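Hi support team,

I'm opening this ticket because the web form for multi-chain structure prediction keeps timing out on my end. I have pasted the exact lines I submitted so you can reproduce it. The total is 852 residues across two entries, so I didn't expect it to be a heavy job. Is there a limit I'm missing, or should I split the entries? Thanks in advance, R.K.
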Amino acid sequence: MSKNSLDFIRKKLNRSNVILSLTVLFVILVIVVGLVVFRFNILRYNVQSDDKVYDKYYVMITDNYKSDFWQEIYKGAFDAAQEQNIYVDLLGDNLPTQYSCEQLMKIAIASKVDGIMVYANESDEMTALIDDAEAKGIPVVTLYSDNTHSDRLSYVGIGSYNIGKEYGKQIINIMKDKENTTGYTDGSNMTNIAILIDSDAKETGQNILISAIKDVIEQNKPEGSDFTLNMITVNNTNAFSVEESIRDIFFADDIPDVIVCLNELNTVCAYQALVDFNRVGQTDILGYYDSEAIIREIEKGTVYATIGIDTKQLGEYCISALSDYYEYGSTNQYYTADVILINKNNVELYHKAKGVEQDE
Amino acid sequence: MNRFLDKPLQYKIVSICVLTNIIIFVVNIFLLLGINSMSVEMEMVYQDNRNLNELSTSLSNVQDSMTEYLSSKTSDSLENYYKNAQHFDLLKEKLDDKITELSFGRMERNIKNMSQNYLDEVAKTIEAKRGRNVEEYRACYENSTAMYEYINAYITSLNLELFVNNSKHYSELNNAFRHYEFISFIVITLVMAGNILIVTSFVSTIIMPLRRLADSANEVAEGNFDTELPEMSYNDEIGTVLNAFNKMVISIKQYIEKIRESMEKERYMQEKELMMESHLKDAQLKYLQAQINPHFLFNTLNAGAQLAMMEGADKTYEYVQTVADFFRYNVNGKKTDATIREEVTLVDNYIRILNVRFSGDIGYDKQVDERLLDVTMPNMILQPIVENAVNHGIREMGDRGKITLKVYREDKNVCISILDNGKGISPEDIEKIMSGRWQHKEHQYDNNGIGMDNVISRLRLYTESDNSFNIESKGENMGCEVIIRLPYEESN
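Hello R.K., no limit was hit. The queue was backed up. Here is the completed structure from your submission:
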């Protein structure tokens, strides 16, 4: 009987011991888990400050960083730079004020970046800035538009003569089409060609392009037809003047038969004006750049043809030029990116190629 | 654990309280630490913005003091400029110049480099102003102002982006804080539950022996000394009480045992004493009986009677014969019942003996219904009554005293009446005699020792009726009549 009660007490004691140990364990566990959860939470919020550090810092300077064209180039440059642990910034992208290329150049020089890719022009101010940067040891690559007098490292752009030739061929095609449809025999067959030139363009590239067009047409124009080539200066000095200038063309008495646009914005404005003024089929537009909107217009027939530029390649060339400079001290003076003509005939093909590229 | 349980009760209770409090305290400290670190974190969220604002203010100060110097060339403004420029330089140096994935880092780097550039430019401006080189300081001023604007633009932009980012961070922190609150609540609740468990299990461990003690005490209180005694658990106060209780129960048990033993002994002694006494009395009685052998007495009296007859003393013979008969009846008293005839004969003999003793003073009249003489009745009833009547009624009256014995039938009873003409009995005395409270005087040698109360109770027992014996007296000197009623059955 007393043995039993002893056992009972021992059992009870053991049981309460077990409960006690479990409880203490449980409390400690709760504290530890709570702390861990808490720490984990805090760390998760803090972790973002810890990010990748790059070796070099290049900037790309352009006057219209929002356009697809420049964004594509930037993307190409950015991807190429990432491989070499270099960061490329599209300067001015995240600043509240919109600065001109010259102002951005100043900022870049003052910021002591490791390389500048600039959409240059032939102005003296730009020349001075490029020279200043070079003097301070910052290599400058002119991109898409050159400043030939400066000490720039190299020029990355497109072959203007090639583009001119392509445009010329297309104009000949247009002229032939016209001949076939109207069936004229008199000598009154005159094709009025207008080339839109930016008001601030002093660059030589445009001149080369225009002369290429002229040469091609002169050599290949069909029998009995003639053409006039006019330069229409588009005022791009302020933000919205381009669109107004292009519309002015359509208000004139003599509306050109072919309009050649030499940048993306002009192309867009031109085809929109064409639609608005109901001139589709009467006036043909030779566009520039292969943005989605322009490709769509080609499919619709509003835009006769456009020039596709390998923008990615442009960006890559910039980076390789700068890297060559840092690696070997010098690099090519010129880099020329591939161009491709897109019209109704090959737009399908182009689409497929683009699709494949995107799939990659 | 056991060592802990052996400690005093107070120590244990205090320990439990302290333990639970410490647990809660520790948990609270941890929670407070968490809250503290979170609030520090929250405080720091907008620190970057504050730093940038300070930088911006400092930049403005540099620009202002430079402008002031350029316009007024006071030494105060120059001093201000140096001070501000130094301050700005310090602030600028704190900026990070790493090229990072995040735009903040790159902007910071640009701001730092531009600030250096700006400071150089401003220094050049000041130098040119001091050298009064108008052309140069104008150009430099323009440059530095442009730079100032760029830097400001950068700072504004960075500030904005940081603000957006920090706001996000802040709201995340806020969220985390809410989560933390919830977790804290759960943790505290769980810890409290744990504490309750700890306290409960501890207290029940401590209280359990006490409860067992209470159960045992209850059983003992109900008189069950053989209950199972609680085990000694630990050496605390309860253990001591338990021990004392166990000892007490054991010693009470021993004490009770002792008392019972001594009581048994005493009783045995008493029994022994009583037996001794009765044996002694028995012996005395036997001794007396041995002395008075009735047969010896009868034979003696018979011998006397025969002697008297041979001598021709007829009267003596008759007397001795009567005495012999009288005593024979007494000694014959082994049987309890007798007939009325035998009783009446005994009374006759008694009167005859008395008349011889007192020379024929007592008149004796007998009116007996012969048919009733065979009715049975207890023996030794009539003679004591007659003896009483003689002794208390007519003794002092000489030859005027008279006793009348009647036996007659009254309804279903046989009545025996003994009537005397003596001095009578007062009603109080009758009452006393009837209820048996009469104190008869000791040492009356003159009777055969049988009192009235004996007679009355034997009669009542025999007839099972209170009316079987009755005394009637008409007053003083008017005599007294005793009437005995016996049930009469026809078959007799």
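A quick check on our side: Chain A touches chain B through 47 residues (CB under 8 Å). Let us know if the file doesn't open in your viewer.
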